[in-house]
Amino acid sequence: MAPAVPADTAAIKAHTPIVISGPSGTGKSTILKRLFDEFPDKFGFSVSHTTRSPRGGEQNGVEYHFVTKDEFLELVDRKGFIEHAQFGGNHYGTSIKAVEDIAEKGRTCILDIEMEGVKQVANHPNFPRPRFLFLSPPSMEILEQRLRSRATDKEEAVLKRLNQARVEMEFADSGEAPHDKIVVNDDLDKAYQEVREFIVGKDA
Ligand SMILES: Nc1ncnc2c1ncn2[C@@H]1O[C@H](COP(=O)(O)OP(=O)(O)OP(=O)(O)O)[C@@H](O)[C@H]1O
């Protein structure tokens, strides 16, 4: 078998990645957008790999690294992904290299990933441990309101997201979750300050 992809690199160690997770609709995108706006040069999102075909205008290496299924599975074998999953018949994953690319630019990689991905990252055999942040909704009722107010989902999709949210909240509450910090997104300004402090520290 091909050798494992090296993961313990100086760049990644110098810029410890941040994993942010939390149920859909909790406010991750909203808070990350603020963070990127406040610190335009400090952070980056990694470019994921996918086996799906590029859509009009999508460029390899920009929206995604577009690869064949064989290439994808070879990288899986080599432990080259910190997390990967299958959706709608296609594979998607975050490679070690993609995280390293951000760190090599002197930026901190922010990984917005769901629960199964969080478990994979935490259990990766040689990827250095990132810092884990969980964003929690104040209650299921409020999460439901936010999902509905976003108005991007049909009823069935909202119910599916709420069920998944329950599973994620249970995981976050269990002793198995790797989270270093849990922030409840009740008041947005307050939640943002807590996230900001966790990520950049008090004095930034
Ligand atoms: N503290 C808050 N108070 C009220 N509304 C909020 C708060 N934070 C976020 N929202 C609203 O909740 C909705 C969901 O937020 P957002 O899209 O950022 O969630 P998300 O966690 O990124 O979801 P997904 O994982 O599905 O992308 C948005 O309409 C957003 O404006």
Q: What would you report as the Rg, rounded to the nearest angstrom?
A: 17 Å
Strand order of the largest sheet: 2-7-1-8-9
Percent in strands: 15-25%
Molecules bound to protein:
adenosine-5'-triphosphate
Largest β-sheet summary: 5 strands, parallel
| The CATH top-level class label of the domain at 10-45 and 107-200 | Alpha Beta
The CATH architecture name of the domain at 10-45 and 107-200 reads 3-Layer(aba) Sandwich
Average pLDDT for all residues = 95
| SS class | alpha/beta
- Shape category: globular
Q: Please, how many helices? A: 8
Identify low-pLDDT runs. none
The tally of beta strands, per DSSP, is 9
- The helicity comes to 40-55%
Q: Give me the CATH fold name of the domain at 10-45 and 107-200.
A: Rossmann fold
N-to-C SSE string, H for helix and E for strand = HEHEEEHEEHEHEHHEH
Structure overview:
It is an enzyme of class 2 (transferase). Belongs to the guanylate kinase family. One of its GO terms (cellular component) is cytosol. Keywords: ATP-binding, Kinase, Nucleotide-binding, Transferase. Pfam families: Guanylate_kin. This protein has helices spanning 10-14, 28-38, 69-77, 96-104, 115-123, 140-150, 155-173, 188-200, and strands at 18-21, 43-44, 49-50, 65-66, 81-87, 90-95, 108-112, 131-136, 181-184. Strand 5 (81-87) and strand 6 (90-95) form a beta hairpin. The mean pLDDT is 95. It has eight helices and nine strands. The chain is an alpha/beta fold. The protein has a five-stranded parallel beta sheet with strand order 2-7-1-8-9, sandwiched between helices. It has a four-stranded mixed beta sheet with strand order 4-3-6-5. Helix 6 packs antiparallel against helix 7. It has a domain at 10-45 and 107-200: Rossmann fold (3-Layer(aba) Sandwich), CATH 3.40.50. The site of adenosine-5'-triphosphate has 14 residues, from helix 2, helix 6 and helix 8.
